[in-house]
Design a protein that fits this description.
Blueprint (H helix, E strand, L loop, with lengths): L2 H27 L32 E7 L7 H11 L3 E8 H15 L4 E9 L13 E9 L3 E8 L11 E9 L2 E9 L10 H23 L5 E6 L10 H5 L3 E2 L25 E6 L2 E2 L4 E2 L10 E6 L1
Parallel strand pairs: 1-2, 7-8
Antiparallel strand pairs: 1-13, 2-4, 3-4, 5-6, 6-7, 8-10, 9-10, 11-13, 12-13
Helix pairs in contact: 2-3
Amino acid sequence: MSRGATRTAILVALFCLLVLVVALVPLLSGPVTGTPAATPAAVTPPARAAGPAAPADPGPELRVMTWNVRTNEFDAPDWAPVVAERLPDVVGFQEICAGDAQELADLLRDEHGLDYEVALGSAREALYESCETTAAGPVVFGQAVLSRVRLRDPVNTILPDGGGLDEPRAFLAVTLDMPGGPVRLLTTHITIGLEAGDSAATAARRRALQGEQIDVVARAAASSGERVLVVGDLNMGPDDPRLDVVERVGLQEVDRDRNSPTGNNRFDDPGSAADNKIDYVFAKGVAQVGDPETFWVPSSDHRPLVATLRP
């Protein structure tokens, strides 16, 4: 090899060695003292596109039943299976003994695992019924409310009797403590419009008394708050104009067409049809869910009327 070629080879070797040294120095020495290592910048994930808003909670439903149970011919053991099967949250009863109402609640708890509170609204002493006298005294027959919703503030009000024209009658009012706020429920049994053997004058007095009694109930409903239910056996047909007073104070009947008969239930004939609407559920300040229900029962001459509501 010539001297020039040798010099060139040495220079190339020295250059390669220099490049290698420059590359190795940072790896061997580590970061410079006092200078922190660089921290990677935080990465923000891309925002998700907003989805549809979750639907609002519709709130709890309230199943309301009204039922005239014809005490004396039937008793609590006859009614308990009907209530247990239909599972109403609250029931307004008419023609019930105070002791039978409490026995019914006991049966529903012990035999069906259903806890109902009881409020009593008796109007008179037992006449032809086999009601037992309770600790509250001899006035033991009339209305009652059974409720799986906490109830409070029961008030029982005796209705006008036309100067002794009719047996004492009453309406019972209770407050139901629903999650969205209280609901006031009134249950009643208005006097009958005609007795066998009535003269025309007596029949007219009975009709006037019916109107007077329903007026009292309607006024009470009007002063009972924003969410009110009136249930019961009103002993008036669906076209009776005296019922209009209830709607004039803001309540609407759940059976809008008033074509769900409840009276004249032939309890010994499961295939029969009822043919007389006299039982009602009126509501204010609550939404109705679906159509009302009525059905044959083996334990009264009235069929229950059930409405599902959303307070």
